[in-house]
Amino acid sequence: MKNPALEEAFPVCDPGVYPLGSRILVQIRTPETKSKGGIILTESDKDTQMWNTTVAKVIATGPLAFLNRDTLKEWPEKAWCKIGDYVRVPRYGGDRWVTTNSKGEKAYYILINDLDVLALVTTDPLEIKAFF
Question: CA–CA separation, 50 vs 130, rounded Å?
């Protein structure tokens, strides 16, 4: 079942980069352009959302993600997220960039270490809002 709001928040776009080693590629939510009440948000509001967003969709994982670095065996708790999951990621850090798809939609990506994933999102990822 398609969810237009999720598709708008996480547009499909080729990131042009895929993780190596224990890195994970995540796409952070595209900033909203208007409030639920229909008020157009300022660039400052969108920038605040952009840099405070900590909800991301897992796009790809490197071949060593979720493995013990010494033994290369799976951690006892197994992988804590998989491709397609929504997760919480640190506000700062990682390698960040933006790409644009053929429809002109922007997608925002971060390349992080597997150990930097803070939590698995088990509710609607669009309901987790940035702190202003």
Answer: 8
Domains and CATH numbers, the chain: 4-118 (2.30.33.40)
Name the residue among 90, 79, 88, 91 with its Cα closest to residue 22: 79
Of the CA atoms within 13 Å of residue 10, those in its CB half-sphere come to: 19
Rounded to an integer, what distance in angstroms lies between the CA atom of residue 46 and that of residue 41?
7
What is the torsional sign of CA 2, 5, 6, 7? Answer: positive
pLDDT tens profile 70-121: 999 999 989 999 999 999 998 888 999 999 999 999 999 999 999 999 999 9
Burial class (CB in 10 A: 0-12, 13-18, 19+), 131: exposed
Q: What's the whole-model pTM score?
A: 0.86
Give 18-45 pLDDT, tens digit per residue. 999 999 999 998 877 666 777 776 777 7
Whether 107 and 15 have beta carbons less than 8 Å apart is answered as: yes
